[in-house]
Amino acid sequence: MATTRIAVAPMRAAQISKPGGDFEIVEREVPNPGAGQVRIKVQACGICHSDVLTKEGKWPGIQYPRVPGHEVAGIVDEVGSGVSAWKKGQRVGVGWHGGQDNTCRECRRGDFRNCENLQIAGISYDGGYQQYMVAPVEALVPIPDSLSDVDAAPLLCAGITTYNALRHSGAFPGDLVAIQGIGGLGHLGVQFANEFGYKVAAIGRGPENAVLAKKLGASVYIDTNETNAAEALQKMGGAKVILATAPNSKAMSELINGLGPNGKLIVIGVSFDPIEVAPVQLISGSKSIQGWAAGTPADSEDTLRFAKSAAYVP
Ligand SMILES: [Zn+2]
Ligand SMILES: [Zn+2]
């Protein structure tokens, strides 16, 4: 009996073959979506500092070869069985939250962000550094027509992380909020903080980001090469929130004394080095340090909708 083989056109992918290995451009078969998954024709993928976790093998349990990329914008190209809410041709994104198991204790509480078996695109499965990727429906974010792929992609990790951390920070309009670092996370953090109505102090090393920080909405720029940032924040009454975006634990430690009463250092820049703090620094003034991981696809949807209404600079 004759059999027909359906030729599947190869695609190109940028993969890491082993921890510490270089990027390799390879040809692969276009992957097919399984049950509860869709295939996405990737149109844009942001580059995040956390991609280094895949490249250097710093995240536990990565299986290689692995294609990084968790700031993906594209078009649903094929849907797997059981998928009804997503259609071919629909514009979607995938961010850091690459899916949850729906069965662990946190998922049963509805806290999908803290799923014990959280999937991360580009870490748990191949991400957006390829022409086509497969993602579970739990990871998908609809992209509004008014946002281009290139503008939407970085909002799906750097954007949602800063937006979601700030909107849950407890700071009110008019409060002093400092954004440490004016990089991929920080330049979005400054814009969201400004749009939320905070008084924004941007903190960077060197004078070169001062003009950009002011343009993005900071009312003050603190150059840590010239000024002790903690003292500068105290002169302004102390920060209600300091959003630490640069992955530099020493720089984060030096900022804790810049917090005002009930102030909070929110850590989103990923580093493996310890933050140093003496208990007395936290006890006096009831200060706290909190980590924050990105958010669910629904949080990403909120981020995209908010960025669409704000004058956001990618
Ligand atoms: Zn990221
Ligand atoms: Zn779970």
Please provide a brief summary of the model.
The chain has 314 residues and is α/β, with parallel strands linked by helices. It is 23% helix and 25% strand. The protein contains ten helices and 13 strands.
Description:
The strands form three sheets. Strands 10-9-8-11-12-13 form a six-stranded parallel β-sheet. It contains ten helices and 13 strands. The radius of gyration is 21 Å and the shape is elongated. α4 packs across α5. Helix content is 23%, strand content 25%. β12, α9 and β13 (288-291) form a beta-alpha-beta unit. With 314 residues, it is α/β, with parallel strands linked by helices. The mean pLDDT is 95. The longest helix has 13 residues, at 297-309.
Q: Treating each run of at least 4 consecutive H or I residues as one helix, how many helices?
A: 10
Sheet-strand content, in percent, reads 15-25%
Topology as a string of helices (H) and strands (E): EEEHEEHEEHHEHEHEHEHEHEH
Structural class by secondary-structure content:
alpha/beta
Extract low-pLDDT stretches.
none
> Can you summarize the main beta sheet?
6 strands, parallel
- Counting DSSP E segments of at least 2 residues, the number of strands comes to 13
Helix proportion range: 10-25%
The backbone outline, from C-alpha atoms, is elongated
User: Which ions and ligands are bound to the chains?
Assistant: zinc ion
N-C termini distance? 57 Å
What Rg, in angstroms, do the CA atoms define?
21 Å
Taking all residues together, what is the mean pLDDT?
95
Strand arrangement, major sheet: 10-9-8-11-12-13
